[in-house]
């Protein structure tokens, strides 16, 4: 895997150009998949030959970083410099500014740099057309930069009694070295497609402390497994690769039959019945998701193959490898609420939004989280239309659940009826909401919503106005004194809402 060029409009390697022409896929897509498969093999080697018991943390950090930058060079060419520059600037800010304010400066600088790159990619290159999306890895690096800055701020600049339980667990009390920082941001296991993970979990993996750390958290029957050897990731890796194969096959066949753009075809809108349009809307967005199931399961398998992702044992004593999993397909496809869907889609990004935005936002945290999500994804107008639509949809779904659900849990039959109805409503609402994310442009997005007469927008607003909204409970630690509670930041319990990352014209963008 070497050499790079731009013979086909890519800044990455053209070594695989004959293969891309043979299978009729763009060189950028082929480079991405081949590099991920190479990373999978490298992960097996990394776990077997650079195990913490055989080599030092320094070597593991160095190898992981160099391999990561090499894969990035193969896929993106000189654009890889942006990954190093963004990380380097942020590290300099952390050192110079100090723990007291680094989280603010790192947040603004990392986000600003990401946004500038997204603007240049969209408006200096072909709008809405496929090109090597070097901003995809930068989205993950931005998450890592901001997460770590907040974690260091919590650990070195705030009093422990002012932290929530999650913040206490993740707080970092020593400044990372430059190598550790680059390894966390640019390692080969996650540089192309993520997912996001915490700095503490990554360092425990590199230093070989994961088994001890996770076993200490396990309750019940799983504890009996902790004295045994390190669990093997072979079975979960093979299972996730099987899911990848099924998802890729589905994407290459069924997805082409249900293009999302057909939802705004004038002939289809005028001639199709309402039932046909609803069914097509659902199936077209259903067909779009396997592309992301493939990318995220492959990314998870790569990390697991390296030994990263062990999450302790379940109640039956079985090893869990879901520490950094990014989705739960069953819960997504059978979600009975808006919240259930987005809590199981892009999971690690949902955790990031919660930790850096929702839990720390004093006013309108739901709206702030959706706006931040739109900014993080990019500068296409369709992103903002999706997330602005998501705000009333989320609030309406919450109001319905809080006011209506209790009436349908009296018997299993009634509860099943409620689940079926809410599943149908959720699938329609999700599909309606995320269409602009795929269409990208203002004109196409408004054309879609006009064809539906903005019906779900109106319904959502009416629900919000009619049904009472129950106040959210603040997440304060028990047994704190009144003074400490007044000093504590206003933190809420609700999980944040991650964006549905369904841009069908890009390489599967990481979390």
Low-confidence parts: 1-8, 473-511
Q: How many β strands by DSSP?
A: 0
How many helix segments? Answer: 23
User: Which range best describes the helical content: under 10%, 10-25%, 25-40%, 40-55%, 55-70% or over 70%?
Assistant: 55-70%
The global form is: globular
Largest sheet: none
Through-space gap between termini: 26 Å
> Whole-number average pLDDT?
87
Label the structural class: mainly alpha
The portion of residues forming beta strands comes to under 5%
Radius of gyration: 23 Å
H/E element sequence: HHHHHHHHHHHHHHHHHHHHHHH
Can you walk through the features of this model?
The protein is 62% helix and 0% strand. The protein has 511 residues and is mostly helical. Helix 19 packs antiparallel against helix 20 and helix 20 (412-439) packs antiparallel against helix 21.
